[in-house]
């Protein structure tokens, strides 16, 4: 009988990503409702120090696959390890963060296990039969689908920044189980040969608590400094609309929307962005939305919790200054 | 080189979404369908690969109802050589495992060196068909590709991940899922559109792919939508207008009162 919840936790360069802590926490909530155990799978190289970071979030067991061939992510190597563990341990539920890695590996595993997968979920719950039901935004956020997983293990990827990562007051006494890794070089055909880091560090928008985004209304790349200034007072990151990216003002890595990043910060500030449906698709699950736009008819105001009709070149400096004063006070 | 490009026809991203009376799918009576934008990058990359190698064939495959042939014709007009349309009333075109399985059968019948798919199908946004297809065919894949160099037996791809790009090398055959940034898709020329009408478009059903009704039913519906709803209306927000010093003051008060962020 399949039992328990397994979370695939992503680490990169020895750091467990926030989205994985969120998935672990959600896994813990589901496991508690089932009255079953939560285990976590960690894959990488030289990562023996990481399991204690997961116990506070409710992991009873951490399975550790630590091997030099696993230093870089590979869909083949990582799915081989995960597949073996899943077939041996037979969990009822397997969760992944919907990060680049989670989105890459989960479907390969689903195919191998011949099971269904709910992608990029924003709500998980158990139905009366204790089966998983997952809510996920579809059609650019214009609808929500409730998906039932009818095969086992029930697999889902969880949208980052939506589920809360909570440290437990009384975490379980965690256990580390080291997996023996039997990989041959020919098991990993697609190999990472290099990592290209941008000259300027690009913040991970999917993890940001506050995002200040600019659109065509910014008029130039230079004026994004106004957004940088506001973002840094709020400890946030800068994003952009496609129009700003296509104009060559900013790197496409920070594009928010249908063809860019899907983000769910606590606070999203849209400056000089009209609010096209493809932009809304990337940010409408933000907790609070603020819009600054000089056109009172701009559709972004329909999506915003608070809107300022005005010239962003006047409003932004004023806002940054007021916030700086506030934080000094 | 045989290049396979998998394309899906999807609702126009501008489309107004209405829910069908049974509440499990959209009502598509008034929906305009387009080629999945991510797959325009895939078609373009397939064509460029053929052009740069100076040889090869670009074959489009789509799983979908009758209307999907329009998307295939558009892709042929861009320059692809021929197309395969998998159409059968048994099929749910939004079921990733089923769709990928049918694609894998057709692709195995065809033979292949390189497979390109969009990173996701706009609308359902599963991000699944590409990696599932690679797994079913037993070949490597690289997802979310923004740069791709193909040589006769291997490929180097740039894959976009959080904050960095991974450079990945893989032997062929392999599958790549394409992301914005990879290229600028061409527009079909008038000549291309004329020629597309004469290019071969083969229609196949499940039986011709060697998949029985029983197998289809076993594959499909492992993650069915049991309810589709419009999102709850966001409560109407506050909109203020006036001197920046005044509107900013109101914003900060609102932030403090409503959000707890400051
Ligand atoms: C398939 C597809 C995918 C797409 N994917 C994306 C995506 O991922 N992300 C995305 O963002 N878009 C995407 N788009 C494009 C989208 O449709 C819009 O074209 C784009 O979002 C517009 O960007 P914008 O709001 O910055 O520009 P505009 O629509 O031109 O709006 C600029 C706004 O700035 C305001 N403004 C100008 N000057 C000032 C000023 N001084 N002060 C205050 N306000 C000012 C104007 O009133 C206007 O509302 C996609 C489109 C398609 C077809």
Structure commentary:
- Chain A has 329 residues and is an alpha/beta fold.
- Chain A folds into two domains: 5-187, Rossmann fold (3-Layer(aba) Sandwich), CATH 3.40.50.620; 205-328, TPP-binding domain (Rossmann fold, 3-Layer(aba) Sandwich), CATH 3.40.50.
- Chain A has helices at residues 18-34, 75-89, 100-113, 224-233, 242-246, 277-283, 300-303, 312-328, and strands at 5-9, 11-12, 15-16, 38-44, 61-66, 93-97, 117-121, 123-126, 132-138, 143-148, 154-158, 175-178, 191-196, 210-214, 237-240, 267-271, 288-293, 306-309.
- Chain A has a seven-stranded parallel β-sheet, sandwiched between helices. Chain A has a five-stranded parallel β-sheet with strand order 15-14-16-17-18.
- The mean pLDDT of chain A is 96.
- Helix content of chain B is 31%, strand content 27%.
- Chain B has helices at 37-53, 68-78, 96-110, 129-137, 190-196, 213-219, 244-259; strands at 2-6, 9-11, 33-35, 57-63, 82-86, 114-118, 141-150, 154-161, 164-171, 174-178, 201-204, 225-229, 238-241.
- The longest helix of chain B has 17 residues, at 37-53.
- Chains A and B meet through helix 2, helix 3, strand 7, strand 9 and strand 10 of A and helix 3, helix 4, strand 7, strand 8 and strand 9 of B.
- Strand 18 of chain A pairs parallel with strand 13 of chain B.
- Flavin-adenine dinucleotide binds at residues 215-217, 241-244, 255-260, 272-274, 276, 278-279, 282, 292-295, 298, 311-313 of chain A.
């Amino acid at each position: 009988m399949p039992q328990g919840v397994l979370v695939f936790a992503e680490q990169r360069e020895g750091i467990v990503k926030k989205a994985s802590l969120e998935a672990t926490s959600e896994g813990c909530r589901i496991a508690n409702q089932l009255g079953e155990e939560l285990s976590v799978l960690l894959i990488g190289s030289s990562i023996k120090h990481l399991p204690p970071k997961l116990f506070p979030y409710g992991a009873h067991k951490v399975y550790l696959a630590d091997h030099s061939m696993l230093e870089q992510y590979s869909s083949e190597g990582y799915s081989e390890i995960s597949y073996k563990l899943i077939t041996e341990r037979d969990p009822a539920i397997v969760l992944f963060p919907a990060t680049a890695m989670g989105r890459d590996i989960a479907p390969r595993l689903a195919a191998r296990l011949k099971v269904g997968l709910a992608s990029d979920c924003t709500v998980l719950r158990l139905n009366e039969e204790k089966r998983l039901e997952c809510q996920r935004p579809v059609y650019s956020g214009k609808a929500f689908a409730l998906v039932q997983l009818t095969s086992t293990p029930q697999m889902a990827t969880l949208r980052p920044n939506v589920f809360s990562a909570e440290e437990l007051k009384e975490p379980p006494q965690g256990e580390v189980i080291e997996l023996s890794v039997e990989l041959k070089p020919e098991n990993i055909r697609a190999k990472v040969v290099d990592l290209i880091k941008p000259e300027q560090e690009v913040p991970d928008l999917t993890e940001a608590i506050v995002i200040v985004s600019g659109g065509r209304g910014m008029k130039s790349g230079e004026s994004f400094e106004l957004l940088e200034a506001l973002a840094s007072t709020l400890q946030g990151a800068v994003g952009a609309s496609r129009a700003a990216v296509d104009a060559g003002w900013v790197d496409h890595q920070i594009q928010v929307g249908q063809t860019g990043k899907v983000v769910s910060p606590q606070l999203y500030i849209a400056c000089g962005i009209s609010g096209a449906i493809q932009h809304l698709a990337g940010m409408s699950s933000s907790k609070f939305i603020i819009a600054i736009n000089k056109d009172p008819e701009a559709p972004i105001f329909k999506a915003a919790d608070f809107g300022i009709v005005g010239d962003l070149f006047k409003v932004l400096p004023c806002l940054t200054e007021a916030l700086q004063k506030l934080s000094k006070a | 080189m045989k290049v396979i490009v998998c394309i899906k026809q999807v609702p126009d991203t501008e489309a107004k979404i209405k829910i069908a009376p049974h509440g499990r799918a959209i009502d598509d009576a008034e929906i305009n369908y387009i080629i999945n934008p991510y797959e325009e990058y895939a078609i373009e990359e397939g064509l460029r690969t053929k052009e740069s190698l100076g040889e090869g064939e670009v074959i489009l495959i789509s799983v979908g109802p009758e209307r999907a042939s329009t998307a295939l014709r558009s892709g042929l007009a861009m320059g692809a050589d021929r197309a395969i349309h998998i159409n059968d009333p048994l099929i749910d075109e939004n079921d990733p495992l089923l769709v990928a399985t049918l694609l894998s059968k057709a692709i195995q019948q065809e033979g292949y060196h390189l497979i390109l798919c969009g990173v996701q199908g706009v609308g359902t946004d599963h991000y699944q068909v590409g990696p599932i297809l690679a797994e079913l065919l037993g070949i490597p894949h690289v997802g979310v590709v923004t740069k791709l160099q193909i040589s006769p037996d291997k490929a180097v791809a740039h894959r976009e991940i959080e904050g960095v790009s991974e450079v990945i090398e893989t032997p062929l055959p392999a599958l790549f899922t394409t992301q914005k940034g990879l290229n600028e898709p061409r527009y079909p020329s008038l000549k291309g559109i004329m020629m597309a009408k004469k290019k071969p478009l083969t229609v196949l059903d499940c039986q011709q792919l060697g998949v029985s009704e029983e197998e289809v039913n076993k594959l499909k519906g492992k993650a069915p939508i049991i309810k589709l709803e419009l999102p709850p209306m966001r409560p109407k927000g506050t909109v203020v207008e006036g001197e920046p010093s005044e509107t900013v003051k109101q914003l900060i008060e609102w932030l403090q009162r409503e959000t707890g962020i400051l």
